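RNA-binding protein (Glutamicibacter creatinolyticus), 76 aa
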Amino acid sequence: MSSEEIFPIQIRDESIRLGQLLKLANLAEDGLDAKELIAEGLVTVDGQVETRRGAQLRGGETVCVHGQCVQVQRAG
């Protein structure tokens, strides 16, 4: 993950589920795509493979799929 550019994604609530974040950040086309990416082990959160679509992200985490990375930031 050293050379990828990390884009900030702001969330309004205290947390967001991983599947929702993938859609918000355009890393997944829809919920089914997000589910498949996660099930196939293609999604990492802070460098670790995450297999729970409902994993709660609260801000500060870096999520990557296929070399595209976003960092969750709480708005406000």
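The beta strands are 6-11, 16-17, 43-45, 48-49, 56-57, 62-65, 68-74. The chain has one domain: 6-74. ok done for today
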